[in-house]
Structures are given as C-alpha cells and as structure tokens.
Write a structure and sequence with these properties.
Protein name: Glycerate dehydrogenase
CATH architecture of the largest domain: 3-Layer(aba) Sandwich
Pfam family, one: 2-Hacid_dh
Distance between the termini: 26 Å
Family: Belongs to the D-isomer specific 2-hydroxyacid dehydrogenase family.
Strand content: 15-25%
Strand order of the largest sheet: 8-7-6-9-10-11-12
Bound molecules: glyoxylic acid
GO molecular function: glyoxylate reductase (NADPH) activity; hydroxypyruvate reductase [NAD(P)H] activity; NAD binding
Number of helices: 13
CATH superfamily of the largest domain: NAD(P)-binding Rossmann-like Domain
Organism: Amycolatopsis methanolica 239
Helix content: 25-40%
CATH topology of the largest domain: Rossmann fold
Shape: globular
Length: about 325
C-alpha cells in the first residue's frame, strides 16, 4: 500500500503509517503546488493531506482508481471535494474532537488580546515609547456581563462558551440547527437568529464550518448590523469573513476591533488590517499545540490504517456534509 503524506507529520503518526504501508512524505517546507500534488499522489492508496491542499476529483484521478482514503489533518474539510471523492469510492476523514480545547483557547486568547489591547500594549513597549500609568491609559473593554454571540455552537463553539461563562459572559448563539436542550441549559445559551445575534452581541465569535452558505457570512451588511462597540473573533476559516469589507468596516468604526487567526487567502492578509491597532492577528494557530497536533496526526494515521485494513474509518466525513 502506498501512503502519500503531503507535509511532514509528527513521528508518532509516522509509526502508525509505516505499519500500514510504504510511506512517502514530501520533503518540502511549503505546501505542494497543485501540479506537484497531482504528481505526488500518483499510485497512492492513501493520502494524508493538510488544509492548504486542494483535493478534488482531478487529484483523485491523478492518484488512480486504487485510491481508498484521503485523511485531512484538520477538522475543517472545505479544501476537499467530498462528493467528487465519494463518487470515486474514496473515503474522506477529518480530525474532530482532539483540537476542540486548543482552538477554543486560542479564540478566547484573541478575545482577551483584542478587548484588553494586549497586542497594542506589547507594540507600545517594544517601540520604546515613553508611558506612565494613569487612570485613562489604554483602556479596554471588560467582559463581565457582556454578551458573547457564538455563530455555530458545535464542539468548538461550546468550548468557547464554557470559557466565556467562566469570565462572566452571557451566551447567545445562532446556527443551522438548535443545540440540544441540555447543551443550552449547561451554557445558559439562548438561541437567536443570526441577525438578532449580530444586533445584540458585544463579541461575535465564528465557529461554523466554511460552506457555500457561510462564505462571506460576515460581509458589509453584517458588519453594519453589529454594535459599534462590538468585536469580531474568527478562528474557523478566513472566507467566512469578507476581509476587504472588514477592513472598510473597521476604518469606518462600524465595529471596535477584530481578533483573527484565519484569512481569506492564506498566507496573505489584507494589508490594511495589519496597520490597525485594534486588530490582533495570529497565523492560523488554532490547533497549534504540541499535544493537539500530535493527536491530530495520529488520528489521521489511524483513519488511514483502518481504511487500508478494510475496516470503517474512525472519523468519516460524509458527502452530505455531516461530520461524523
Ligand atoms: C484547522 O484549522 C482545522 O480545521 O483543523
Ligand atoms: C493596578 O495596577 C492596581 O494596583 O490597581
């Protein structure tokens, strides 16, 4: 069995993969180009890929009819054309669960950083600007009693809500479907329409997957509905936010600030956002802890091993879009 890995993965995962077949790992310290990807997968029974790899029917065809499984080392799988792969009999897997806490931690970190001006304060000191403590100096916004609006109350959204509850925030949420009553009551979370959420939240945090319905969910219109004092946090996928509209909205002070871990055209970032002190940016670090990245790679490797062994995948993504 030939297993193609598009970017280096932790050794723990390599051990599992080597037991399942002959492993080829890209030696590049960058994403493979689309041409390189099609070339690399030739003859593969399994592909372990990253969120920057676009895996569609053409890639599956380049691999050949023996391709059985594409294991994305990510919970999000908008980079994979799941229906096209399903048509070709290829199982797609993702890595839910293991990155929930790490991602919610980073989202909450961005929330604190932007509301308490941590990045701005850091830059002030590093620029050796003179300063002194005074009662009006670099004031931020408190969180206690404020409302967090969670768009998409899935696993990560719920983990974010738990953190916010500990900080004394009230939770409202919107999403395709209503959460279970026990989830709502544990979080004291109130379900609102998306518009109502935008209207009432002091912080809007995005935790929905990127789908055709959520692309540019936060656009000029949505920003116009948000409170002028509100903050936007995005740790899901960049294209859920219209980045140019966000820059426009921030310049017009339609909202107070943003904490962003993901971008529309990674690794690029809308340059105007980088000029703004009320924007905190991190380079797609949501799941970036040693523990979580190891778990993610291991889970992907176990998915490959299970499918190649003729067993069911641990985390199969179904073509109807439901996460297993
Ligand atoms: C990271 O962004 C993931 O989807 O796992
Ligand atoms: C703040 O630093 C305080 O001591 O109140």
């Amino acid at each position: 069995m030939r297993i193609v890995v598009t970017r280096r993965v932790p050794e723990a995962a390599m051990v599992v993969l080597r037991e399942a077949g002959e492993v080829w790992v890209s030696g590049e310290d960058r994403p493979l180009s689309p041409d390189e990807l099609r070339e690399a997968v030739r003859g593969a029974d399994a592909v372990v890929c990253m969120l920057h790899d676009r895996v569609d029917g053409a890639v599956a065809d380049a691999a050949g009819p023996q391709l059985k499984v594409v294991a994305n080392v990510a919970v999000g799988y908008d980079n994979i054309d799941v229906p096209a792969l399903a048509e070709r009999g290829v199982t797609v897997t993702n890595t839910p669960g293991v990155l929930t806490d790490a991602t919610a931690d980073l989202a909450f970190g961005l929330l604190l950083a932007v509301t308490r001006r941590i990045g701005e304060g850091e830059r002030l000191l590093r620029s050796r600007t003179p300063w002194s403590f005074h009662l009006g100096f670099m004031l931020g916004s408190g969180l206690q009693g404020k409302t967090l609006g969670i768009v998409g109350l899935g696993q990560i959204g719920q983990a974010m809500a738990h953190r916010a509850r500990a900080f004394g925030m009230r939770i409202v949420y919107s999403g395709r479907s209503r959460a279970k009553p026990e989830v709502e009551s544990a979080l004291h979370a109130e379900h609102l329409s998306f518009l109502e959420l935008l209207r009432t939240a002091d912080v809007v945090s995005l935790h929905c997957p990127l789908t055709p319905e959520t692309r540019h969910l936060i656009d000029a219109e949505a920003l116009g509905v948000m409170k002028h004092s509100a903050f936007l946090i995005n740790t899901t996928r960049g294209p859920v936010v219209d980045e140019a509209a966000l820059a426009d909205g921030l310049l017009r002070r339609e909202i107070a600030g943003a904490g962003l871990d993901v971008f529309e055209k990674e690794p690029e970032v809308e340059p105007r956002l980088l000029e703004m002190d009320n924007v905190v940016v991190t380079p797609h670090l949501g799941s970036a802890t040693v523990e979580t990245r190891t778990e993610m790679a291991l889970l992907a490797a176990r998915n490959v091993a299970a499918v190649l062994a003729g067993e069911g995948a641990v985390n199969e993504v179904r073509p109807d879009g439901d996460r297993s």
